[in-house]
Amino acid sequence: MKIAVHGKAFSPDYDDAVKQILKRIKSIDDAPILEFHFKRFLDERMSLTRDWESFSEAHQVESVDLLIAIGGDGTVLEAATLVRNTEIPVLGVNTGRLGFLSNVGIDEIDLAMDAVAAGKVWYEKRLLLQVEVDGMDFGGFPCALNEVAIMKRDTSSMVAVEVERDDVFVNNYWADGLIVSTPTGSTAYSLSAGGPIVMPGAEILCINPVAPHNLNNRPLVIPADGQLQLTAEGRENQFLLSLDSRMFILDGGRKVRVTPAPFRFVLMNLEHQEFFSTVRAKMHWGIDPRDR
Fold first, then answer.
1. Chain center to CA of 207
2. Which member of 13, 73, 137, 244 is catalytic?
3. What pTM was computed for the model?
4. Are the CB atoms for 251 and 72 separated by under 8 Å?
5. CATH: 1.10.10.10, 3.90.1150.10, 3.90.700.10, 3.40.50.10330. Which one for 3-127+264-291?
6. How confident is the model over 88-108, as pLDDT tens digits?
7. Is 107 helix (H, G, I), strand (E, B) or coil?
8. Is 73 part of the annotated catalytic residue set?
């Protein structure tokens, strides 16, 4: 099995655990590759990876069988920009608080590596959104795993976002911004804006205004197929267009076309993992608040 590793800087408290996962990775693949910046961090922190090869471009991981993302959910989102349309599975190992995507705890490293080696895992295909704006370059990966959002750039007046679906007018939202969320993103930004929690396998999207001026504008759930067209206007002529954590400047009046991507993001899970157990742990469902 060929393994690539992407990650972010972590607390020294996790040094021993990360050393263990690196040793286990090397026992499965004698020539794993590390993302360049993460390798530089590890080389300064520990000596285990000095002879490992590194990569800095997405095309350099096209031949791997698995990408392990060490960090939080944001690190897994970055991993999506590396695997792109290859559908190479990603295993998220969490070095912070419990994540929805980086759902392997640091104390489960040996369990996870045993499962990978034995093939005792299962794969979950997640919907991505593909974005097109005439004349805009999204760096070779015009897709988002969590959400596409249009936001005002500063504390100025609201943005008005007109939404059409397959050339049928839906609504004009006056708000601080508008989120188009996938089921994966339903537990991210959209949730903080009052959106519903959606099971990852559902083929739906949620259109969710951020701080809407009209309080009767509530989150709207629609089928994922078809094309959404978003057009932002306002007193300011420039807005922020975000694809997950990547930000771009959007001129007012430009049409943002959002469609389901023709490929999926593949998340590797351990046998005992499932969505509801993660939600219960993250959201503290079923726990008496007095017992927290």
1. 17
2. 73
3. 0.94
4. no
5. 3.40.50.10330
6. 999 999 997 768 999 898 889
7. helix
8. yes
